[in-house]
Amino acid sequence: MTKSRKLSRDFYARPVLVVARECIGKVLVHRTADGVAAGRIVEAEAYRGPRDLAAHSARGLTKRTAAMYGPPGYAYVYLLYGISWAMNLVTTSRGEPHAVLIRAIEPIRGIELMARRRRKPADSRELTNGPGKLTQALAITGSDYGKNLCGSQLYLETCAIPVGRIGRSTRVNVDYAGSWASKRWRFYERGNRYVSVPPRG
Q1: What is the span of the domain harbouring residue 148?
Q2: Which of 120, 121, 87 is nearest to 104 (CA)?
Q3: Which residues, 6 or more positions from 104, have their beta carbon under 8 angstroms from its beta carbon?
Q4: Which residues pair with 165 in a beta bridge?
Q5: Is pTM, for the whole model, over 0.90?
Q6: Can you list the positions of beta strands (E) in 127-185?
């Protein structure tokens, strides 16, 4: 089996649509005092602000969006609907506030730990089939805002498990964004049970 390799900053320093597609099948890892938990990314969305009205950066540079304006390869974590955290990868280059939202992962390491955090059976689809669910399972919170994805705690790595067919659709819950809602900037692994919602568009 091929040994996993942590992704370098070069992976993130590319156009956001390229990163969004190519992060499918990569492994999101979080090391905490409780242990290590990780999952294959099976669904992600690209946000290409500031012109993209679905992106937080469409509102400009604020305290909330500052991480998106920084160099690529850092975490942009925000509170989703005031309830749960959402994990994003900052991409492209400094000053271009582009990011990839990780929408779903397939658990592969630390599954029992994730199950305890989620209070769900270890084999439940509900463990990580949504952006707020996966952050709870991996214990990603606002304290991870701006974290270096090339560090030792929160990062992406390669995976020996082959990637299935990659599908593409419009993004989820961005109807407020006008014509930007029709952009097919959501990528997912076809047939994977952890994908959050059926394809749209």
Answers
A1: 9-189
A2: 87
A3: 41, 42, 43, 128, 129, 130, 131, 133, 134, 188, 192, 194, 195, 196
A4: none
A5: yes
A6: 154-157, 166-169
User: How many structural domains compose the chain?
Assistant: 1
CATH code of 47's domain:
3.10.300.10
* Beta carbons of 53 and 60 less than 8 angstroms apart: no
Over the stretch 106-157, which tens digit does the pLDDT of each residue have?
999 999 999 999 999 999 999 999 999 999 999 999 999 999 999 999 999 9
Residue with tokens 């990163």: 19
Helices 111-118 and 131-138 sit at what angle, rounded to 10 degrees? 110
> Residue 4: how many CA atoms within 13 Å on its side-chain side?
17
What token pair was written down for 129?
């089939």
